[in-house]
Backbone:
C-alpha cells in the first residue's frame, strides 16, 4: 500500500515557497502505517468531492482491508443517516456496513441518549435534512421538522406572523444541521424555542463552514453558518456533537473500541479531522483533495500540523 504524492515532514522540501509542506517517501508512510490497526476515513474531500469520486480512493481502501486494517468512516455530514452514507460509499465502489459509519446525524441522537433526554414525553425540533430525522426516529425520538412549525410555507416571517407562532411545550431540544432550505422563517422558529422554552437543549451536528465542490473548487456553505445564525438570533450556544467538538472523541473511542495509539485518521480538515486525531494521539493524514490546500498548511500552527500530507489517498 502506498500513498500517491506523499507530503510530510520527513523529506525534502517540495518548493521554495511552501517550506512547511515537505515530501516524504512512500517507505516513510508505509512505516508509519505498519503498526496501525484501524483507519478512520472522512468521506467528502477524501473519498468523494461533491458528487464525484476521487480517483483511486476505493482501491486504496480495499488495499488497507487486504492488509487486515479495520476501516471506519466518520463524517460531519448530517444530511444522511448511517445507512444512507454506507449506500453512498457503495455507489463510489467502497463496500461498507452501517456499523462502520458514524455520521453527525447519528451523533446527535447518541448525544441526547448520553444526557438522558426524556424521549417518552419530550419532542425534538429539527432544523436540517432527513439524515437527522431518520437517526432520531430510529433512536425512538419524536421529531418535529422546523418546516412544520413555521407560520407558512414561505421563507419570510413578518412580525405579526412571529407573534402568532404557537409554541409546542413538549419540545425539549433543538438539533441544527445543514439545511438546503434554511430560511428566515425557520430562523425565527428556532430562536423562539431556544429563548422561550426553559431548558431547551441546543445541539449542533457540526460547525463546518462548507465543502469544496465542482471542478473549480467553489465552497458551498455547510452547517456552521446555519448554526451561527441560530446562535446569534437566540443568544444561545450549541453543543457541537461532530468533529471539532469536545463530545465526540470519548464517544468514538468507546463506541468503536479503539486504541488511539494504533489508529489513524484521514481527513481534509485541520480544525476537525486533524484536531480530533491530535487530541487523542492518533496518526493524522491530510489529503489535499478537499478543503485544505498548501496555503492553509503553510499558515498552520506547528501543534495543529498533520503528521503526513498526501495529494490523494489513491495508490
Residues:
Amino acid at each position: 500500500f502506498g500513498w500517491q504524492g506523499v507530503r510530510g515532514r520527513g523529506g525534502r522540501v517540495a518548493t521554495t515557497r511552501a517550506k512547511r509542506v515537505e515530501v516524504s517517501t512512500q517507505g516513510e508512510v508505509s512505516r508509519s502505517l505498519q503498526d496501525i490497526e484501524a483507519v478512520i476515513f472522512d468521506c467528502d474531500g477524501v473519498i468523494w468531492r461533491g458528487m464525484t469520486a476521487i480517483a483511486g480512493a476505493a482501491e486504496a481502501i480495499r488495499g488497507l482491508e487486504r492488509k487486515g486494517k479495520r476501516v471506519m468512516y466518520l463524517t460531519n455530514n448530517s444530511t444522511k443517516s448511517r445507512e444512507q452514507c454506507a449506500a453512498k460509499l457503495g455507489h463510489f465502489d467502497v463496500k461498507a456496513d452501517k456499523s462502520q459509519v458514524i455520521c453527525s446525524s447519528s451523533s446527535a441522537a447518541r448525544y441526547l441518549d448520553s444526557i438522558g433526554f426524556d424521549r417518552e414525553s419530550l419532542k425534538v425540533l429539527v432544523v436540517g435534512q432527513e439524515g437527522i430525522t431518520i437517526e432520531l426516529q430510529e433512536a425512538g425520538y419524536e421529531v418535529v421538522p422546523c418546516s412544520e412549525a413555521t407560520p407558512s410555507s414561505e421563507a419570510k416571517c413578518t412580525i405579526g406572523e412571529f407573534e402568532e407562532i404557537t409554541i409546542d411545550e413538549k419540545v425539549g431540544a433543538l438539533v441544527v444541521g445543514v439545511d438546503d432550505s434554511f430560511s428566515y422563517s425557520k430562523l425565527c422558529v428556532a430562536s423562539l424555542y431556544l429563548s422561550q422554552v426553559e431548558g431547551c437543549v441546543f445541539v449542533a451536528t457540526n460547525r463546518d463552514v462548507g465543502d469544496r465542490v465542482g471542478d473549480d473548487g467553489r465552497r458551498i456553505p455547510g452547517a456552521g453558518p446555519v448554526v451561527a445564525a441560530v446562535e446569534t438570533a437566540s443568544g444561545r450556544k450549541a453543543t457541537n456533537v461532530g468533529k471539532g467538538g469536545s463530545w465526540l472523541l470519548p464517544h468514538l473511542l468507546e463506541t468503536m473500541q479503539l486504541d488511539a495509539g494504533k489508529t489513524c485518521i484521514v481527513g481534509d480538515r485541520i480544525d476537525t479531522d486533524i484536531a480530533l486525531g491530535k487530541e487523542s494521539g492518533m496518526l493524522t493524514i491530510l489529503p489535499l483533495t478537499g478543503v485544505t490546500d498548501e496555503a492553509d498548511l503553510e499558515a498552520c500552527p506547528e501543534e495543529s500540523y498533520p503528521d503526513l500530507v498526501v495529494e490523494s489517498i489513491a495508490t
In short: Residues 284 and 306 are 5 Å apart (CA to CA). The radius of gyration is 21 Å. The chain is about 35% helix and 25% strand.
